[in-house]
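Fold this sequence, please.
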Amino acid sequence: MDAPVLFERLPTTKGRYLGHVRLNALATLNSLSLEMIDLIQAKIDEWRDDDDIVALFFDAEGDKAFSAGGDIQALYHDMKANPGGPCTYCDAFFEREYRLDYQLRQYPKPTIAWGHGIVMGGGLGILSACTYRIGTETTRIAMPEITIGLFPDAGGTYTFSRMDPAFSHFIALTAANINARDGLLTGMLSHLVQQEQKEAVLHDLLNSDVDQANVSANLDEILLRHNGEAEDSFAPANLAVHEETIRAAFEPALMANDPIKALAENMADWPEDKWLQRARASFLGGSPVTAQVILEQFERAKTQSMAEMFRMELDIAKACSVHGEFTEGVRALLIDKDGSPAWQYPLGEVPKSHVERHFESVATPHPLQDLA
């Protein structure tokens, strides 16, 4: 049986190596398990101090997905077996996943992610942590956590904090599926390259005059050369097409006393567009607790460092694993698949005290206190 993550040292003509990390869990659309997280962490730690490794390249097996997120079913079974907590698998998973994502964002060597196909949740955590974030004509990005009672995590706080607030709140609160041009528009992606050009990009990189000193310059030149070739293969950005509608709903709502109820009212007259209506349905049918947590999460992020954001995410994640909403959301969407979650509160009626419980520190000292 193949390992769930494959590692390879790809030789360059300069006598150095590109560290290749390939997600290899096709049955789960390369969703991250704790084992996969630990394997990646150990390898990037090894390569960090290896002077022969000049950069890291992340991709995934198969055509369908870079990664569909985390191994949610494993988290569900832990929560189901330990109602009210402690949920030891969940705790370990979130702590080690967030540590990996943070360290990738701080990695001293260039990191490249080839984000083809589905890129969600934990998969987006890895992609968005990389220096070079490549999207293709097949890329479909989403943070669908509101549909299962979780929240945008794995560094999502930092990613969204650097985005236009109307777009960040829209993507997080509606689980909207966005394409490669959307990713470029929001900064989630840094380059667009056709999927068929992947081997050419790798070939050019490995055969360029690349060493530790000039690897970034070579990467910039190579990706610029391949960037956006055959423009017609990339669909227009949905966010740009529907920008006026999104801003008209979200900008006044975010200034209202009750943003969630204001959003529900503002979306009532949205045009009969399939993409917009799917986003609206996900918001109205999603977890009311998650909706309120997202508002608080994004507000607190305005004054936080990156390390503080990751510590906050761990606090929220551990709260989600014991307060029941996440368990019920996964049950309805992925286990029983009845599509009818019994959320704890109606939309816009979540007590402030319950929201605040999600931001209580998990321990002293904090498990991620060493993040600098």
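The two ends are 38 Å apart (CA to CA). Residues 5-357 form a domain with the 2-enoyl-CoA Hydratase; Chain A, domain 1 fold (CATH 3.90.226.10).
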